[in-house]
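Usage

Read records sequentially. Each one opens with the input sequence:
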Amino acid sequence: MPTTLEQVRLWLTGEDVDGLPDRTRIWPIKKRGGLDMGKMAGACRHVQYTMSMDGSDAVLLFGKYRGQSVSILVNKDEEYCRWMLNEDFPPDLIDVVAYRLKAAREERQGHYA
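and closes with the structure output:
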């Protein structure tokens, strides 16, 4: 488990795979956008993410939003989160994205009621 700010930065950016906490998941990606990732040479075939202890949030350790939590991402790029729901991501990560999208939508509706 990271203890210094530098270790946390390395952990959040996915640069220090050995220092990742137990709740970190590595998931093989089979298909993305209709492409068979297993047949693509050099393609990233895994995603890394870490779940919160209660399972209500996750930090992405891959892609353009590496190091960001889903709870922040739903307000920053809702379209990206909706895209994630239709791709080959792990079920627990999809559940977090769906939960956070729903919560953000309900919060926006509450502000306009």
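Summary fields computed downstream for this record:
- Strands lie at 24-28, 31-32, 35-36, 46-51, 58-60.
- Helices lie at 5-13, 70-76, 78-85, 91-112.
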